[in-house]
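Hi team,

Below is the intake form for Amine oxidase from Petromyces alliaceus. Please confirm the fields before the structure is written into the shared record.

FORM ID: S-0412
PROTEIN: Amine oxidase
ORGANISM: Petromyces alliaceus
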Amino acid sequence: MQMNRDLSASCLEVDGAFLYYEMIGDGPLLIPMPGANGTGTLYEPLAAALSSHFAVALYDRRGFGNSLLEPPGEPNEITHLRAQGDDVARLIQHLSPGKPATVFATSGSGAMAIELLQSHPGLVHKMILHEPLLASLLPPSARVDIKRRMIEIILAYGASGNAKIRRALIPFMQGKRDQQRLSRHPHFERLSSQPGDQTELFYQYELSLVIDYDFDVERLSAYRDKLVLMKGVDISPELCSRPLISLSKSLGVPIIMTPGGHNGYITDTEEFCQKLIAAASSDKATWATQPVAGYVSQARDQEGTCKKTTVAILGAGISGISAAQTLSNASMHDFLILEYRDRIGGRAWHENFGKDKYGKPYVVEMGANWVQGLGNPGGPENPIWTLAKEFGLQTTYSNYSNISTYNRDGYRDYSHLLDEYDEAYDVASPAAGRILTENLQDQTAKAGLALAGWKPKSHDMEAQAVDWWKWDFESAFAPLESSFVFGVASSNLTSNQFSDEDNFVTDQRGFNTIIKGMASKFLTEDDPRLLLNTKITNITYGREGVTVYSSDGNCVQAAYAICTFSLGVLQNDVVTFSPELPEWKKTAIQMFTIGTYTKIFLQFNETFWPTDTQYFLYADPTTRGNYPLFQSLSIDGFHPGSNIIFVTVTNELARRVERQSDEQTKKEIVDVLRNMFPDVDVPEPTDILYPRWSTEPWAYGSYSNWPMGTTLEMHENLRANTDRLWFAGEATSQSYFGFLHGAWFEGRDAGRRISGLLKGCKGRNSTVCGPRKRYPVLHGTSPLADYSFVNGWEVSSFYDSNDD
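The structure came back. Fields below:
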């Protein structure tokens, strides 16, 4: 190390080594533990920023830099993780006798820090773990895969030097933005050019130990009050983020979000230090209850205060806005809306695409695009259609009968199969209703349709294309993956109640115009109750209130909260809950499914397809659902003369397409179009655009589906509140899951119930006030006695056939 800012240097003899260290600053002792670099040089900018608050000890780990092994030995003598922890313990005893120290560890030093805490807890005031590599908390398959790939890299580049190994391993540790920012930082440049770089010792002798490191989380929980968990705001790879989230959930310790990514202590030193100082200075890392605005909410006992409100609404999609409007209509205006993105609208999201003859781009919808059910004479009207008319939303009738059918040889009329499906559905629909009303067991939609006469053969690709068009096009899942009863019921509730007519939104202001219009009735311009660009990281809830933490370090305390996150966000543990959600709630979240529905827009320099047709159905010769449905926008009522067509893909193909490049997708689509129109010289598209729903961290999918085998009670658990934390969104709608109007209804219901609770449920009945129903225990339909040899249960721990 070479640092010249009021520092002193010395050596400490420990068992088997001499530790070199340098001191800077005044105050309580803080020791940053080096990771792969092995030397204190890594933390010099951090130490300088902390020096007015702490006495910082920068040291070289044994075998690295100026810390020599004694007697000199083989490199593997430095690889004992406990020895690394013991070394820091000796440093603390030497530099701060009788007083514990704060220890900061990141990346590869996380395992060493845990050894220190578990072996010498009395020497540690605070243990700050920033994105530690704790692979034992990954799923076993992911852990094995990561280790295998790392070893392959080290073996392949071992003879080429540290620089190549480091470059090859970077994607395991750093996100792209982190890499870019770090590569331009002057301190990183100095580290890279440092003479005598010994990181090969870590790669060759320590990395495997770190990846293989196992520890007892239960044992560590005894020291949870000493633990501080930190994660960078920038996206980090799985190895750096997923174990930390798992540890947070297991220990009930919230994650503090810090600036930057895996190397934020270098790229964002000053801001990072503010977080570190606050965490190290706090006397507690636990949670305390404090009164908030006449109610009781959870509050973190550390520096800084939270915004206080009566209701926190998490998400500004139509469900969140509907909830807020309902509260406002009930004269309850004390709420805050927290939204991940820089706009309201949620999955009603549009983008500019292509250009018209004047060079002006068109607006196309990435997500919600249809108003389903325009109303029956004398019957109820879809609230989305009511809003569309109120705000003058431009739409065009979707004529589903205006469809042409194709296969790999071009146009082929197999429209008779459409009629066959419709005839079967007319039989299946009342059968599904009978199963529901007579409380019979559900079946897959595939089985229900087959019993009604629709049995597409696996090799009949034209029938498979029709099957996709009639079922997947709406649900984003195949009939085999869907509940017969609830799939039919949801579709029928919309079409029979509101009509089976749908309109396609073409408004150049975007579909979310209606959501903005709703919000304009109770939010003013720049309303302080709308908090955009707020990435929620933790929700701490209980019987007395809710506290919501965000990545910028801020928090909101509320008497109640309404979580409108998509099912995909809940399933992917994007946000931690403290305490963990109850088992019945977690089970319900995982039982239901979220589909991926991807529209891929293409613009050409000409409209080479028929201009009198809305839909084009394609039967791929080998793969069901391979770019199966094209819809023209270059026709009257849509965007005539635009030369725009879009193709819809769902589920597995959608997820694959969303993970590949635009160029690859473009090539695959053009190949399909050339099969469909063999007599046309199909040109290359001039533009292509599509969303990545399955990878968007604020969505992780398009909309939910009701899988076979999940009951109404299971869905009620998905919908139910946990203490004062409520849930809303299209996924929680039993009648209209997957639909925009489902999200609208659920937001309204949550708003009504909470406003009723706040008013003491006066004048309200139990159906619109009070907690939602839940089932902590759900029993199956088969008693234990039925699992018998007599019934074909050949091998059983419940029954001994020798007893007969």
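SUMMARY LINE: The CA atoms of residues 703 and 797 lie 41 Å apart.

Thanks, M.
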